[in-house]
Amino acid sequence: MENTNQQNNSHRRADFPPSLWGCSFASFPFPQTEFESYSRQVEVLKENVKDMLTASKKDPVEHIEFINLSCRLGVSYHFDDEIENSLKQIFADLPKLLEKHDCDLYTLSLLFRVLRQHGFKMPCVVFDKFKDTNGEFKKTIINDVKGILGLYEASFLSVHGEQVLDEALVFTKANLESLAMQSSPRLADHIRNALIRPFHKGVPRIEARKYISFYEEDESRNDTLLKFAKIDFNRVQLIHRQELSILSRWWNDLNFAEEFPYARDRIVEVYVWANGVHFEPQYAFSRMMVTKYLKMISLVDDTYDAYASFEEIQHFTNAIERCSMNALDQLPADYMKVLYRAFLNLFNETENDMGKQGRSYASYYVKEELKELVRGYHTEAGWADKCHVPTFDEYVRNGLATSCYGAIMATSFLGMEEVAGGEEYEWLKSNPKILSAGKMIGRLMNDIMGHEDEQKRGDCASGVECYMKQYDVSEKKAIEEIQKMVANGWKDINEDCMRPTNAPMPLLQHIVNLARVTDVMYENDDAYTIPSSLKDYVALLYIEQVPCCVFYESVVFDKFKDTNGEFKKTIINDVKGILGLYEASFLSVHGEQVLDEALVFTKANLESLAMQSSPRLADHIRNALIRPFHKGVPRIEARKYISFYEEEWWNDLNFAEEFPYARDRIVEIYFWGNGVHFEPQYAFSRMMVTKYTKIVSLVDDTYDAYASFEEIKHFTNALVGLMQSSLMSL
Q1: Quick one: which of 528, 519, 376, 511 has its CA closest to 436?
Q2: Rounded to whole angstroms, how far apart are CA atoms 595 and 536?
Q3: How many CB atoms lie within 10 A of CB 404?
Q4: 671 shares a domain with 631
Q5: Which single residue of 170, 216, 234, 443 has CA 20 to 30 Å from 11?
Q6: Structural Rg of the chain based on CA atoms
Q7: Is residue 528 within 8 Å of residue 266, measured between CB atoms?
Q8: Do 64 and 12 belong together in one domain?
């Protein structure tokens, strides 16, 4: 449809950066075989990790540490029920636990953070023991890096009136940078990442990906848990990529990037918002719907802020209030009709989906939240049209609606039928403290980072300008005061997550996650408007897989067992096979019985096989029995294997016995090849030079020291003929 109104000179035009991704995600092919392989591996490892989680219960401190690791590595969602029950028990026994254990700063901070992040309000007075008689934190704890970092992380779980945690934040921040300078590069990076964004404010999926890399270098790491986290991350990433592919095609089919060239083309970045709220596979429908609604909302926002006349805006707002195809004719511009029709189609899609679930009420609440949001945009457009700067209080009241939090959460609830019924939608509509705080954080953080560019585009005054005018302060002072409000908003969020709660914990956690996405989006600038700021996160989450060893399922070895479940006797004389199975058995994880049996079986047979083998192979087998390759120091193993491998090709040919008259000089021949080019990249050349030179040496000794002249003539003719036929075939 040709949009003649877009040529109207009265229309403004914001100069937003173009999309970074274009159609790149739309063509993503879903690798079904790879996904199924990951899924099978996850199921096996999940049971192993679950056993470890259960086993750790014998020590409450160890159990809390394991729960924390599963959270930080992004796999705790697999064990929600187990973790919930464990933490209930630990919290109930907390007085006894604290009395029995003289917890150090790190352990106490970890216990505090894990319990509070799950809604259990552990009292903050437990930290008073680390203060001196003057009420200040003791200088003796300053060099406790783990403890100081743990206390810093714990301080972000504070609620109003907890002075000790406010002081802890100031104290730990003042010391962590200097501690980072004294730490190993690995720990220093971890500390600085925490100073930029503490774990409690991080988007779970991003935090998990970063922590996997950090934990991988921990010498005391749990390899099974790490492997589980890596494989599960890659598995879930494939799900997210598929969703992003479907949404990209939906967006491309609408052709709205061309239909509305003045608006931000950001389907990938919108998906980052939705994915940040709930990444777990079971919330796929919620992610899809949140992305679609947010993209449409973004179009309305850009239309009101950066293109439409105020008269057009009034007509569109009235049409949204009616939500009826009958209102289409009242819209004065074709481009607005296209946008309005798309909204109605999305509403109809929602009503159909919710009707099938018997939750028609859900679509009503979504529609009402959208109406409130558009009213808020209309109010802002009116202020901009009249060049009016409202009071800060007036701005914030309207800004709670334009933050989009209400609309996002109402849409998010669509895919959460198990916990989000009519009662929960009513709770959401009542604007509870946690939601109100999230709305304020979203609105004000956007204003802090985007207000300068917005003013250049002719938008209405932001919270920064409104605060400056109402309180007659500088821009710097206004931003400082607004940042304090944001910090207090986080305390409101924490407070509403403490048990007993007014809504199911999953719903509360998704509001917390939305605030976390906001913190990431407005870290250094408005990353939604300036997509290059989000590029690395997009790559981290949806493009780059976690590097990990290929995890083959141990059931592949079942084929070598007989009907009695024992390894077949027919494989006993397969020396290379038995040695290979022995080496493979050391890569087992918990619960892989076939590999445990393989170790017993192969060890029982390898010594006798060594006695039947050549001296060279016998030595190799006995070295493996002393120390398998998986347990060897790589450099030492490499040196030993070089000596073994140098002779392997030559020994397999058995030419030392076949041609006893010739010089047996494979090592000396390799010396020639190595002297020509020793560099690592020329390994293939060295190998081929050695092989050809050794064969040439055999011919030389045959001609010089053994064959008759007649034999030599026949061999020469045969060799020339072979060369000619090879050339003819090229």
Answers
A1: 511
A2: 40
A3: 25
A4: no
A5: 443
A6: 34
A7: yes
A8: no
Question: 505 with 429: CB under 8 angstroms?
Answer: no
Assess whether 311 and 342 both reside in one domain: yes
H or E element at residue 86: helix 80-92
What's the domain count of the chain? 4
Q: Is residue 642 packed enough to be buried (19+ CB in 10 Å), middle (13-18) or exposed (0-12)? A: exposed
What number of residues does the chain have? Answer: 730
Q: Note whether residue 454 is domain-resident.
A: yes
DSSP state letter for 328 = G
Please tell me the predicted confidence (pLDDT) of residue 675.
Answer: 78
Examine the domain organization and report whether 105 and 222 are in the same domain.
yes
d(CA 286, CA 291): 8
Among 542, 452, 534, CA closest to 264: 534
The structure tokens listed for 714 are 């026949």
Orientation of helix 422-429 relative to helix 360-385, angle to 10°? 20
Tokens standing for residue 654: 């058995």
Contact 172, 148 (CB under 8 A): yes
Amino acid (1-letter code) at residue 399: G
The parts of the chain modelled with pLDDT lower than 70 are 1-10, 12-14, 451-459, 549-555, 635, 637-650, 681, 721-730
Q: Which of 511, 543, 575 is the last residue of a domain?
A: 543
pLDDT at position 113, please?
98
Burial class (CB in 10 A: 0-12, 13-18, 19+), 524: exposed
Domain coverage including residue 65: 32-229
CB atoms within 10 A of CB 650: 19
In the numeric block, the tokens 């004065």 are attached to 332
